[in-house]
Design a protein that fits this description.
The chain has two helices and seven strands. By secondary structure, the protein is an alpha+beta fold.
């Protein structure tokens, strides 16, 4: 399976979750290393674009294509486990707890979660410390210029 990640070029080859660990995010608390990926290039862009303005529009982003081995079991989060405000902004501690527990449990390498940005689409969270992480590979990195029309 292929998943996608939009990143600044200087971090493109660092698939380790250290960037996410610097902040409290939707699916992790500060200090928890986790890798956020999306099921499509468009979703990867949308997940980043919601945090940008025309003034902060980066010129150095790349789209990373990541291959997840078909031998890796993917845990799918049941949306019934989420409260009605799970996708609020800023994110709440409930979703952060789910992500942190996913990482700490070390039972699965991948957790499929709903996107808070695009209803009906999904993100894939990767545990960089899981034994199956070695079966995940970056297969392509290409420049990704944002279309200025998105921010008019």
């Amino acid at each position: 399976m292929k998943v996608f990640r939009l990143s600044k070029k200087k971090y493109a080859t660092e698939l380790n979750g250290k960037g996410a660990a610097k902040f409290n995010n939707r699916w992790n608390t500060k200090g928890t290393e986790i890798i956020y990926t999306a099921e499509s290039r468009a979703l990867a862009m949308a997940e980043v674009a919601v945090h940008l303005t025309i003034a902060t529009l980066p010129k150095d982003f790349v789209m990373i294509t990541i291959d997840i081995s078909k031998n890796i079991i993917i845990k799918e989060l049941d949306s019934k486990e989420l409260d009605k405000n799970w996708n609020a902004n800023p994110s709440n501690s409930e979703t952060q707890k789910i992500g942190d527990l996913f990482i700490d449990a070390m039972k699965y390498c991948i957790l499929k979660v709903p996107s808070a940005v695009v209803k009906g689409d999904f993100n894939y969270l990767i545990n960089p410390h899981h034994k199956d992480f070695k079966k995940i590979k970056i297969i392509d990195i290409i420049n990704f210029p944002f279309d200025d029309r998105l921010f008019q």
